[in-house]
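Here is one chain, start to finish.
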Amino acid sequence: MRIVLGVGGGIAAYKVASLLRLFTEAGHHVTVIPTEAATRFVGTATWEALSGNPVSNSVFDDVHQVNHVRLGHEADLVVIAPATADLLAKAATGQAGDLLTNTLLMAHGPVLFAPAMHTEMWQHAATQANVETLRSRGVAVLEPATGRLTGSDSGPGRLPEPEVIFEAAMALVQGQADYQLPLAGRTVTISAGGTREPLDPVRFLGNRSSGKQGVALAVAARNAGATVRLLAAHMEVPAPAGVEVVPVETALQLREAALAAAADSDVVVMSAAVADFRPAEVSDTKIKKRDDSADPVITLVRNPDILHELVELRNSAGHGKGQQLIVGFAAETGDSDGDVLAYAEAKLERKGCDLLVVNHVGADKVFGQDTNSVVILSRSGAEPQEAAGTKTEVSAAIISRIGFELNHVSPRA
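Its structure:
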């Protein structure tokens, strides 16, 4: 098989030498095209020695062979590693300033990008939009690994290990185009933020939810290949690019939106903090505080149990027939009658959802924070799964579990 191995200008370029060795030892003919910046990290002599082929990054070398056209035409596979933010941007916008970007435009076979960059660069809206553009064109873009980066910090942005890239490339050539996108072709509805229940035109009953976890889930689901619909209650963070946003305010509005969205969703994730109660009456005018008036008495009524309704709808004929995966969230506090997990297990049984993501909340826990620690409970009786770290990392674990459930668990009765 003829492989073009494009090398981007990042410090992870040194790891690509091992990837090249894997390709050549498997019997493949590899042409390495480093960017000019990549040669500052690993020289052309290394690539030539390991590949057994001449190496160039200029369209003006061997002009008589028209390499900027020929290499892309002849390649059975193009792999870009590390795929820097700059290379992703150039590929997404169709730039052709050197031999590698010209080859990408001429490629007829499958193309695989293995990104590596700093976390903030990977998570930047521009990079995510470029990744979304490439994926929409049928290009495979791996998720970067999470771990120690060049400096002292860590997070998503590490180049996947050479063995992972190699296996992904072989699977891509064999037609398993969606292997790295566990939710490809799926529609996922996610609720996020906190509902607000009005008392009058000025005041409301609300909660501390910032929407960070729900937005992180939407990003993770989008990056896993899903079509994502975000039911956005009050959030302190912006909705991510590349998802459909349905704004809601109250629990009743969220209920209406969730029931409508569930009709065509493969997965419904109810991560929003939904008010259990709402005022029985809403004043049309601001409730005044007067010295000659008694203190107001606010009567509360229960809001509908949206999660339970979704399960009942899913289980009814004509609404998925048990194929839809429903994920609930439980923000719990323990008390003298039981701990957090005890209450969560009872809630899982009561709600009937497939997975329940549980966290221990408080004034200084979870709400508004950038980190989280959760336990994922399953109705199937599987062992509880723990996930901790940034909300991005926790979301990746949750979406990975959802993908596993969809792809490995028998359909629900």
